């Protein structure tokens, strides 16, 4: 007899993208930023490394929240810093969804949401997207109506498309929360702003942000939620007291204070994204126009797994993804490649390899 | 109507010890180590700060687990690193206890266990300790028998006493897990070793360790679990993929590799602990002999809150604690002071202040 709860025993756990720890790979598989973080980050870390690490961090992350609040035009008490935005997603499931409740999310989208639902032992249902990566309001309406939480990445992954606020409004559950996962927001033409919290459904919205993508800090595990005061006060009860460490706090505070650095990297990535999209088209691929730091593409041959393996043999890692149950794809299975935007040189090497492969 | 789950709405959240962020305090309230971490830690952090922070950390914490396994004489797959040992405690509640299940823990002990049970919406029951900080096997037996998880800090807080393995064996639930919280283990005469995992009940034991106390690294939020292979494999499914950041991993790996540094600090703290205990007795207090990095004491006057406030007025923070429902204390309320062992100078300043106050 297992001691584990039955729903924990049942799950296999989330499998993150491959993370080779040795050098020599061109890593275009987990949407990391190819550029280093602001030089102020290393300075802040070095200062933190030699001062009071023997003491607990500020459990309220006062300095970080003050600066983040300025950047987003909200109050510091509308910000909740977490150990990566993964942690805030976990905190949300634990706050709003219990056994018997329903969680929903667009599909194909971020696979982790399903794992989070399984871990919390809640039902989950997919809001199936069509070939244009949109939902039909009529089709998803009944699910949204019953959901206690709807998770929406905007821009979406793996597609990279961005939905408008009026589209998003269709996914707000009348008796639940909408989680707007903005992991890739900074790469969009018009990132979702905190303005949405002023909508009449704004008391039911939690926006999340991460430092793993636009701020080049996947290594420090830092994210945060933005929501109305009551929402943040409730979520704060569910987090561990000292969920963010002193060094990550110092690093994230330095990074968010240097908006110019982040924006310059985002601009370069957007340029390379346009170039890659164009190259893929020339090579006969069918890429989806992206608002994120990756491009989703299929190829008419359908040989996506073979292409992934051929790239891997050349030490180029991209993400091969398969989504069963998509009714507009062949055999109801959609698969394809998600290619992270690296440096221009890395992406050019990938394109060169693809020229040899396809 | 609140969107939050009823059990979340109900709780008020764990209140950690006061953490003044400005200088000038003698901080003897949250069991931090007064000495800096190994110098190798700052070196490791500085190296990590300037290399690949844009990439995700190793989700398996391979280097750390290798060294920790050597230190504890176990296999690397028997180690699960977490974001502070708080995170492993949360992971355990989510893995083993569901609605309707029972969690238990000695009382008085670490208050957080109750908060963790409330967050998971499980029942909890106290294993009431007697005046010698021991339990009666007859009294606690029926509760242990029904529990899905029993949390035991060893050494205990606030008392600082340590239980033997044969005592601990009385608390292993027949159909649940025993969590041996070893936050203070390194300060004991004979720290609990991983030997207990070889007992016939060893498949139902999870040991936890933290870097916040003996390793002087409360600021980096790092802890880990030690258990048998199956147990660790199950717990790993419940953690966030990237729960430990690159810098904390580098810092913890450097710290655990420098056992001599940790041991030297522990020796100094044990010396000061003996001195403080002696001084408290001379001042008319009734301290409990401690195996941890703090001393629990009462005073015959019972004016513990007044003494706490008088120390605070002198910028000396100790922890005033009150435990209702203790049947051997006056009015069933036990209160007292928990004084962290700081440097000899800090503790001497506290003693001087107490001389003026009592």
TrEMBL record, chains A, B:
Keywords: Amino-acid biosynthesis, Aminotransferase, Histidine biosynthesis, Pyridoxal phosphate, Transferase. Its EC number is 2.6.1.9. Homodimer. It comes from Planctopirus hydrillae. The keyword Transferase applies. It catalyses: L-histidinol phosphate + 2-oxoglutarate = 3-(imidazol-4-yl)-2-oxopropyl phosphate + L-glutamate. It is an enzyme of class 2 (transferase). This is Histidinol-phosphate aminotransferase. The keyword Transport does not apply. It comes from the Bacteria. PANTHER family: HISTIDINOL-PHOSPHATE AMINOTRANSFERASE (PTHR43643:SF3), HISTIDINOL-PHOSPHATE AMINOTRANSFERASE 2 (PTHR43643). Belongs to the class-II pyridoxal-phosphate-dependent aminotransferase family. Histidinol-phosphate aminotransferase subfamily. Pathway: Amino-acid biosynthesis; L-histidine biosynthesis; L-histidine from 5-phospho-alpha-D-ribose 1-diphosphate: step 7/9. One of its GO terms (biological process) is L-histidine biosynthetic process. The modification N6-(pyridoxal phosphate)lysine is found at residue 213. Pfam families: Aminotran_1_2 (PF00155).
């Amino acid at each position: 007899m297992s001691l584990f709860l039955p729903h924990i025993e049942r799950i296999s756990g989330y499998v993150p993208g491959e993370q080779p720890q040795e050098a020599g790979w061109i890593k275009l598989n987990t949407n990391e930023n190819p550029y280093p973080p602001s030089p102020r980050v290393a300075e802040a870390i070095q200062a933190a490394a030699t001062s009071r690490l023997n003491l607990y961090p500020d459990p309220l992350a006062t300095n970080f929240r003050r600066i983040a609040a300025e950047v987003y035009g909200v109050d510091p008490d509308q910000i909740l810093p977490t150990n990566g935005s993964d942690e805030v997603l976990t905190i949300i499931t634990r706050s709003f969804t219990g056994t018997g409740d329903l969680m929903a999310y667009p599909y194909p989208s971020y696979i982790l949401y399903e794992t989070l639902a399984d871990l919390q032992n809640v039902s989950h249902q997919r809001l199936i997207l069509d070939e244009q990566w949109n939902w039909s309001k009529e089709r998803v309406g009944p699910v949204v109506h019953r959901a206690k939480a709807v998770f929406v990445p905007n821009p979406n992954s793996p597609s990279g498309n961005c939905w408008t606020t009026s589209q998003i409004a269709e996914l707000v559950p009348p008796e639940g929360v909408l989680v707007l996962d903005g992991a890739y927001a900074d790469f969009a033409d018009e990132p979702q702003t905190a303005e949405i919290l002023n909508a009449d459904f704004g008391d039911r919205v939690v926006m999340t942000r991460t430092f793993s993508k636009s701020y080049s800090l996947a290594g420090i595990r830092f994210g945060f939620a933005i929501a109305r005061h009551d929402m943040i006060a409730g979520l704060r009860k569910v987090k561990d007291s000292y969920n963010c460490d002193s060094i990550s706090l110092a690093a994230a505070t330095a990074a968010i204070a240097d908006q110019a650095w982040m924006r310059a990297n985002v601009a370069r990535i957007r340029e390379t994204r346009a170039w890659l999209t164009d190259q893929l088209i020339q090579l006969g691929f069918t890429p989806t126009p992206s608002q994120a730091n990756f491009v989703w593409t299929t190829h008419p041959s359908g040989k996506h797994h073979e292409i992934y393996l051929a790239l891997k043999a050349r030490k180029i890692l991209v993400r091969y993804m398969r989504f069963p149950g998509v009714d507009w794809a062949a055999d109801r299975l959609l698969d394809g490649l998600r290619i992270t935007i690296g440096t221009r040189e890395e992406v050019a090497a990938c394109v060169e390899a693809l020229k040899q492969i396809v």
